[in-house]
Amino acid sequence: MEGDCLSCMKYLMFLFNFFIFLGGACLLGLGIWVIVDPTGFREIVAANPLLFTGAYIMLAMGAMLFLLGFLGCCGAIRENKCLLLFFFMFILLIFLAELSAAILAFIFRENLTREFFTKELKKHYQRNNDTDVFSSTWNSVMITFACCGVNGPEDFEAIPHPSYSSSEKATPEACCQRELQSREGMFVNKEACLSGIERFQNRQGCYTVILNSFETYVYLAGALAIGVLAIELFAMIFAMCLFRGIQ
């Protein structure tokens, strides 16, 4: 009976680690896609140090889970106590780091409000100054998502324009409609847009557009994170049980 239980734990351990292996492969692939994606998202990530760091953290976490899943599978099948102990310690560290990150994200979620982004935009945005990371990032976001400001073009009314005149509105070029939503895309009518004709402008705020675009993926990412934490917890339990059961 004890041998049957040990054999059952061994194969369950292998199964859980196989899922961790797959999860690591998915994170690794997602991290690589974010960094090399040619559709415009790469430009946003590269312009924002926080997103740039996050992409590489995702890449590193994916590679680590990929490796640990592989080691866990090998340790379970070969019944190697050294590999099992190595796996348990590292998966415990990863589990605690992910749990801490989730708690911090929950605590600081209040910083991701519409009012926070509006305040930051009005304070730091410098229109077409592509040497400024903040402005370049916002321009890329507005062009990619065909939106304007946080709430709409009215966000830019209080922001100084370098060549502002009485006949020129406050709307930046990034808010003008394009035939293709990328920096290389041709303007539908740039002069009419900058003169204030609304039908040539993107009028919807980026906060609403991005929230609607990523709402489904946020819930999916949350469910995936909970699933990964649960799998890691069970994998640690089976690893320790198998470690103690091996003679």
TrEMBL record:
Disulfide bonds: C147-C176
Main location: membrane
Signal peptide positions (record): none
Sequence intervals crossing the membrane: 12-36, 56-77, 84-108, 217-243
Gene3D superfamilies from the UniProt entry: Tetraspanin
Cell compartments where the protein resides: Membrane
Keywords carried by this UniProt record: Disulfide bond, Glycoprotein, Membrane, Transmembrane, Transmembrane helix
Topology with respect to the bilayer: Multi-pass membrane protein
GO cellular component terms, semicolon-separated: plasma membrane
Cross-referenced InterPro entries: Tetraspanin/Peripherin, Tetraspanin_animals, Tetraspanin_CS, Tetraspanin_EC2_sf
Alphabetical list of Pfam families matching this protein: Tetraspanin
Coiled coil location: none
PANTHER family recorded: TETRASPANIN, TETRASPANIN-18
Annotated family: Belongs to the tetraspanin (TM4SF) family.
Protein name (record): Tetraspanin
Gene: Tspan18_1
